[in-house]
Amino acid sequence: MKDIFDYLHTVEILNRIDTLSPVSQPHWGKMDVAQMLAHCSAFQDIAMGNTSPPRGWLGVLIGKFAKPVFYNDKPLARNMSTIPTVLVTDKKVFEAEKERLKQKIIEFQSNGPESCTTHPHPFFGKLTPEQWGKGLYKHLDHHLKQFGV
Hints:
The protein is mainly α. The chain is about 50% helix and about 0% strand. It is built from six helices and no strands.
């Protein structure tokens, strides 16, 4: 499984982000490309400990049993539900969101596993830095595939 803490995997993700354009169209889902980038930044903020959304009751009940979905080798399902705090529906500026996400990915990768939040994921609960690294790569990969890159 690829991992955002691996420099080469980070470079791959950044290069794929660079192939996006303001007119990139999704193969599924409701977000436009700028909203997707903002969504990924908001998710990155959770892993970095910049935000810590509360756990929902469903996550408390089943999150620990479902959490391998976040970091295993199977692709994420299309149109999965998301954490309400990272759902982006308002208009965003593509170039600003693209640069913001790239900077957050670079910062997270360069700070290393010890920089991961110790707060639980809002659905899956407690994650190790290794699980965060794999899960962040998988999440970014999912959304880049959503836009064909």
